[in-house]
Design brief:
heterodimer, A: alpha/beta, 8-stranded mixed beta sheet, 4-stranded antiparallel beta sheet, 12 helices, 12 strands, globular, B: mainly alpha
Chain lengths: 332, 307
């Protein structure tokens, strides 16, 4: 049985400007221990997917569809029932580690309360376990760190602590929402390596949300490309990078700066902006920015089976390969 | 922490000195003197009186002599209540004023915080709007209006409570304490609501929820402390409001506190009494602000470790 089965998930927000459709019929599943990358631009609904799963949508938000976790429907649970799963079976870490930690409580207190709450441990036992966990995420002198407060630690250190906090109860799933975006590059790679190691060692599945395909490449088994709250393409990591099947994925890959290729000095970008989520366009949501758009794109494409366990939401049967296209552009 | 508290304590001395200086010269600038009366005294008697109270020396000399006196905690004799020293008058009125002000302050913070948290949790509901509208009215009504209305309702129309006087009994404290704390309850409720809403939307509250903390623990353990910081910083101004408020309230309810000495002293040009009360109030406000700073440092680790 899959660990997580998301079916036709819709998330919308009531705002003064109208109803914002953040996630529109998202479906995917995740096997135990698997690492899934969810990639897309800002506003593509990545974070809100995770928030809806955790029951952490803001007050004006609502979710429909189905999120089955080990056969349990998460969207139907009460806050009380959800709070037994959060932090224990499913953990989540966030983009800005420093402000995600409570500045008024010591690191130790914030770690210990997870264990005393979910595992009924006594304080002393919980402190011992927390210190072990800090050691595992590569924090030296855990005892001293636990007496400190978030503002005394670096961003990288805080994210390590957040990861430790997330893994304290050995959850089945860790949702990491842009865990390295707020950190500088060297720290980013340390945190990514750490998450890779931990996911190999434990049986925790990871759902990694990011806009950075580079991060995905190093960590994930499977990738889900999101645009305007919909899946554009799903594939295993190697085939996605070798042969992107959707023009949007191509665009994302092209906009990753590469050191091993000579280029004209201008970074490639996808022209235009994501669609207005209040007033979604008809047909394919990527139509307006797609270099290959044609008449058929006025109809909304389904998520087609593209073979080898891959899926894509595009009317085109074949895409010109990435390399050739780049060369063509250079000639033109 | 010790270093920080000592530093803050030292900075109180110049503040107090400035307060004393300004008050000393201001009251002397005011027209009239302590021995003026409707009949007018013969010039010789007035001269004798001034000599007795050493008011005939140059002002600057009087100023420095006064500084010397108060350094020994001697606030001099009252010019109006001839058999009393200022120390005695303050010692007599202070416990009454302290009791009344203390009750009002506690009432304001406890009730105000509770209302504020409740409104924050019910944000944008009818009860939230209703509470906050009532609070706005509470802030807008000065206590010299609220106090007579309270007397009218509870003492005269309903006859539940005495209309004034002071004997240390709870019944006589209720109305003046409420009248004194009413605007502050409203103010504290509004501050609490605002900061609570802000804190509940912060990232670390989201983290607390994401790690499965039950809602009451999110509220009490994670949100309340930061939400109370702005409320605590209001403690200083609140103390000042209590003092100025008590001047009015003590008169309306005929309470023998130091507030009435202050008004009476100013009207009588009772220089030493006015100065005594001003310094007393000043020390009180400085002390409360000092307490606020210490509380702040204790509550917020970021302040604690900076210095």
């Amino acid at each position: 049985m899959a660990l997580l089965e998301v079916n036709d998930l819709m998330v919308s927000f009531d705002t003064p400007e109208g109803v914002v459709h953040a996630v529109n019929g998202l479906s995917f599943d995740l096997e135990p221990g698997q690492t899934l990358g969810i990639v897309g631009e800002s506003g593509s609904g990545k974070t809100q997917t995770a928030m809806a799963m955790m029951g952490l949508l803001s007050e004006n938000g609502s979710a429909s569809g189905s999120v089955q976790f080990r056969g349990q429907e998460l969207l139907e649970l009460s806050t009380r029932e959800l709070s037994r799963i959060r932090g224990s079976k499913i953990s989540m870490i966030f983009q800005d580690p420093v402000s995600s930690l409570n500045p008024y409580l010591s690191i130790g207190d914030q770690l210990v309360e997870v264990l005393t709450h979910h595992r009924d441990l006594k304080r002393k036992a919980a402190r011992k376990r927390a210190a072990e966990m800090l050691h595992q995420v590569g924090i030296s002198e855990p005892g001293q760190r636990m007496r400190q407060y978030p503002h005394q630690l670096s961003g990288g250190m805080c994210q390590r602590i957040m990861i430790a906090m997330g893994l304290l109860c050995q959850p089945d799933l860790l949702i990491a929402d842009e865990p390295t975006t707020a950190l500088d590059v060297t720290v980013q790679s340390q945190i990514n390596t750490l998450m890779g190691e931990l996911s190999e060692k434990s049986s925790t599945a990871i759902m990694l949300i990011t806009h950075d395909l580079g991060v995905i490449a190093g960590l994930c088994d499977k990738v889900l490309v999101m645009y305007a709250g919909e899946v554009m393409e799903t594939a295993d990591i190697d085939s996605l990078f070798a042969d992107p099947a959707h023009p949007y994925t191509q665009g994302l890959l092209k906009s990753v700066p590469r050191l091993d290729k000579a280029h004209s000095g201008i970074l490639s970008a996808i022209p235009g902006n994501p669609p207005d989520l209040v007033d979604l366009p008809e047909g394919c949501p990527f139509r307006a920015r797609c270099p290959h758009a044609f008449d058929k794109c006025i109809e909304h494409p389904d998520l087609f089976d593209a073979g080898e366990g891959r899926h894509k939401r595009c009317w085109l049967d074949e895409l010109p390969p990435l390399e050739e296209e780049a060369e063509q552009e250079e000639h033109a | 922490m010790l270093n920080y508290s000592l530093k803050r304590l030292a900075s109180a001395i110049p503040t107090l000195l400035i307060l004393i200086t300004v008050a000393f010269f201001l009251i002397r600038i005011a027209p009239g003197g302590p021995f003026d009366s409707e009949k007018g005294l013969p010039a010789e008697i007035e001269a004798n009186l001034e000599a007795k109270y050493q008011l005939d020396d140059p002002l600057v000399i009087q100023y420095f002599r006064y500084l010397g006196d108060i350094a020994r905690f001697d606030f001099g004799p009252s010019f109006h209540y001839r058999d009393w020293t200022v120390n005695q008058l303050i010692a007599q009125g202070a416990p009454v004023s302290f009791t009344l002000g203390g009750i009002a302050l506690i009432l304001a913070f406890v009730v105000g915080t509770l209302i504020g948290v409740w409104a924050a949790l019910k944000q944008n509901s009818l009860s939230d709007y209703l509470t906050m509208s009532v609070a706005m009215i509470g802030i807008s009504i000065p206590n010299f209006v609220a106090a007579p209305l309270l007397i009218l309702l509870f003492a005269i129309a309903l006859g539940w409570l005495p209309a004034g006087g002071w004997d240390g009994s709870i019944q006589r404290m209720v109305l003046p304490a409420i009248a004194l704390s009413l605007p502050m309850i409203a103010y504290v409720a509004r501050i609490t609501r605002g900061s609570m809403i802000e804190v509940l939307h912060s990232s670390f509250i989201r983290t607390a929820r994401a790690k499965g903390m039950p809602e009451h623990e999110v509220l009490l353990r994670h949100a309340l402390k930061p939400a109370l910081l702005p409320v605590i910083s209001y403690l200083g101004p609140a103390a000042a409001a209590i003092l100025t408020g008590s001047v009015v309230i003590e008169r309306i309810f005929t309470i023998p506190g130091i507030g009435s000495h202050f008004v009476q002293g100013a009207l009588n040009r009772d220089y030493t009494l006015v100065m005594g009360v001003v310094i007393f109030y000043g020390v009180l406000i400085i002390a409360l602000n000092y307490l606020v700073d210490l509380l702040y440092a204790w509550l917020d680790p970021r302040i604690r470790y900076d210095r």
